[in-house]
């Protein structure tokens, strides 16, 4: 029995199945169905159903955002457990928290590793290309299923922040408060370039087999390298100096060969190898491509025009050392919102953690988010 008063405790992942008779229409022109969305909830839904908060995860995230997934775990395994729970930034004594794994994912939701009912085999690359708007459309079906007409808040960091922005555009009447963190309205050429290198590493691995590796092989090397590349972008120069400097790994002098010499090399290899155990290579391809395609102003004359008529109140948060989604990108969002007279609070948190700060700067995020949720409700 888990006895952790600071946690939501042992959590059961639920599964919502839909689009059986009427497939979901996707931006690419294809359809998808049936669809399963894995999701978890924490806290209780109020009688008025007005306290629901949708948490949106980043590229490697999943539905398990808080608590324990197994009674055998020594500590909570939820990826945002430090923010979700009793008395935390997303206080489960006050709010009903929902988090679902995106379509295209590999942690319980329908994605390329799922069985295609038409063939009885995994989709692989026959899975349709999905976009951020497609992910949000599927989430909307889940929220409808839960009987919630309006979300108190949508919140997420990185790719989760992209989904936050898409939510207020796709379903403006359903969102009261929006908190995009360490994100952007469109992916930069630099970020697209890093994604492409990661995909090239996967697709260049002989074990990838054109995406048809299920039950045969596994592009472990390629996926591991993709994760190593990605993880470098999540850190900052200063944080890497503080964490590793030029320290050697279990030795006092160079080996003068190509084995691991430095601690930073060992760390990246560990991150890559552990990622392979929990993530599907094809999902990495699909999700990273969805991020590349994301451009909130596409189809509009400007980002300002994109936000015209938006009624949600915003808290936009960036981090000083984040060079993957630098603060200027968050400022562009705030500027476009304010040009529409949309209420938008902006905070740039000084942090040495880089992009990963949205998972690590718990104290400052807790204060900002809890205050915004409280005051945002009072003014509505």
What is the element layout, followed by pairings?
Blueprint: E1 14-18, E2 24-25, E3 31-32, E4 35-42, E5 52-56, E6 84-85, E7 90-91, E8 96-100, E9 115-116, E10 121-122, H1 132-145, E11 151-157, H2 159-170, E12 175-181, H3 189-203, H4 220-234, H5 237-243, H6 263-276, H7 281-293, H8 303-306, E13 313-319, H9 327-339, E14 344-349, H10 357-360, H11 362-379
Parallel strand pairs: 5-8, 5-11, 6-7, 11-12, 12-13, 13-14
Antiparallel strand pairs: 1-4, 2-3, 4-8, 9-10
Which labels suit this protein?
380 residues; 11 helices; Rossmann fold; globular; Rna Polymerase Sigma Factor, Chain: A; alpha/beta; two-stranded antiparallel ribbon
What's the CATH C level of the largest domain?
A: Alpha Beta
The 3D shape can be described as globular
**Helix percent band:** 25-40%
Note the gap between the termini: 41 Å
Helical run tally: 11
What is the radius of gyration?
Answer: 21 Å
Question: Looking at CATH, which topology of the largest domain would you report?
Answer: Rossmann fold
Order of strands across the biggest sheet?
1-4-8-5-11-12-13-14
Rounded average pLDDT: 96
Beta content comes to: 15-25%
């Amino acid at each position: 029995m888990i006895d952790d008063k600071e946690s939501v405790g042992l959590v059961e992942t639920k599964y919502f199945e839909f689009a059986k008779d009427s497939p979901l229409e996707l931006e690419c022109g294809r359809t998808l169905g049936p669809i399963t969305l894995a999701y978890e909830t924490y806290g209780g839904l109020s009688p008025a159903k007005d306290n629901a908060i949708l948490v949106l995860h980043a590229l490697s995230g999943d539905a398990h955002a808080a608590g324990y997934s197994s009674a055998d775990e020594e500590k909570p395994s939820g990826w945002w457990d430090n923010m979700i729970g009793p008395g935390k930034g997303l206080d489960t004594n006050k709010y009903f928290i929902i988090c679902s794994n995106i379509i295209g994912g590999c942690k319980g939701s329908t994605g390329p590793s799922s069985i295609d009912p038409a063939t009885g085999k995994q989709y692989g690359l026959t899975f349709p290309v999905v976009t951020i708007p497609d992910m949000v459309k599927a989430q909307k079906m889940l929220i409808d299923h839960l009987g919630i007409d309006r979300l108190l808040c949508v919140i997420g960091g990185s790719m989760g922040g992209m989904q936050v922005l898409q939510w207020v555009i796709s379903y403006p009447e359903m969102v009261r408060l929006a908190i995009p963190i360490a994100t952007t309205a469109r992916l930069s050429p630099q970020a697209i370039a890093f994604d492409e290198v990661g995909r090239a590493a996967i697709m260049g691995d002989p074990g990838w087999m054109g995406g048809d590796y299920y039950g045969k092989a596994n592009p472990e090397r390629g996926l591991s390298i993709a994760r190593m590349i990605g993880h470098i972008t999540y850190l900052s120069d200063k944080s890497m100096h503080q964490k590793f400097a030029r320290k050697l790994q279990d030795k006092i002098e160079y080996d003068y060969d190509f084995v691991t010499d430095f601690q930073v090399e060992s760390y990246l290899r560990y991150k890559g190898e552990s990622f392979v155990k929990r993530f599907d290579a094809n999902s990495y391809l699909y999700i990273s491509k969805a991020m590349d395609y994301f451009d909130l102003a596409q189809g509009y004359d400007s980002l300002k025009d994109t936000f015209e008529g938006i009624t949600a109140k915003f808290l936009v948060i960036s981090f000083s050392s984040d060079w993957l989604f630098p603060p200027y990108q968050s400022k562009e969002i705030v500027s476009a919102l304010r040009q529409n007279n949309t209420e938008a609070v902006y905070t740039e948190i000084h942090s040495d953690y880089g992009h990963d700060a949205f998972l690590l700067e718990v104290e400052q995020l807790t204060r900002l988010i809890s205050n915004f949720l409280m005051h945002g409700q009072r003014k509505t």
